[in-house]
């Protein structure tokens, strides 16, 4: 799903799995970001394609805050980040929410 369609789809709701909600090593930024990625996840498109800029504007976060928060979710195994080539020298990032470290998708 294009970022434009995701922005139009703002009426989504977010669910935070208890495993993430109860993880004391994650701050509230990470929990809210995970819920947003899961809410924007489109199984038909294979993930969430929202850009960093989209999340920075949505949450009024700095670039650094978003990067650190994404990295924390990746390191803990809660999301998978895949970079795909679209055209020459153009790449697209896909974020895939995972339920736990065993990669059971929600």
Précis, in short:
This protein has 106 residues and is of the alpha+beta class.
Structural write-up:
This protein has 106 residues and is of the alpha+beta class. The protein has a single domain, classed as Arc Repressor Mutant, subunit A (Orthogonal Bundle), CATH 1.10.10.10. The chain is built from five helices and two strands, in the order H-H-H-H-H-E-E. The protein has helices at residues 3-8, 18-21, 28-40, 52-59, 63-75, and strands at 79-87, 90-97. Strands 1-2 form a two-stranded antiparallel sheet. Helix 3 crosses helix 5 (63-75). The radius of gyration is 13 Å and the shape is globular. Residues 100-106 have low confidence and may be disordered.
How many distinct beta strands? 2
Number of helices: 5
Q: Residue ranges: pLDDT <50 for 5 or more in a row?
A: 100-106
Q: How far apart are the termini?
A: 18 Å
CA radius of gyration is 13 Å
Shape field:
globular
Total count of domains:
1
Q: If classified by CATH, what would the architecture be? A: Orthogonal Bundle
Structural class: alpha+beta
Sheet with most strands: 2 strands, antiparallel
Q: Spell out the helices and strands N to C.
A: HHHHHEE
CATH superfamily: Winged helix-like DNA-binding domain superfamily/Winged helix DNA-binding domain
Any idea of the CATH topology?
Arc Repressor Mutant, subunit A
List the helices and strands and how they pair.
Blueprint: H1 3-8, H2 18-21, H3 28-40, H4 52-59, H5 63-75, E1 79-87, E2 90-97
Antiparallel strand pairs: 1-2
Q: Key features?
A:
single chain, 106 residues, alpha+beta, globular, disordered C terminus
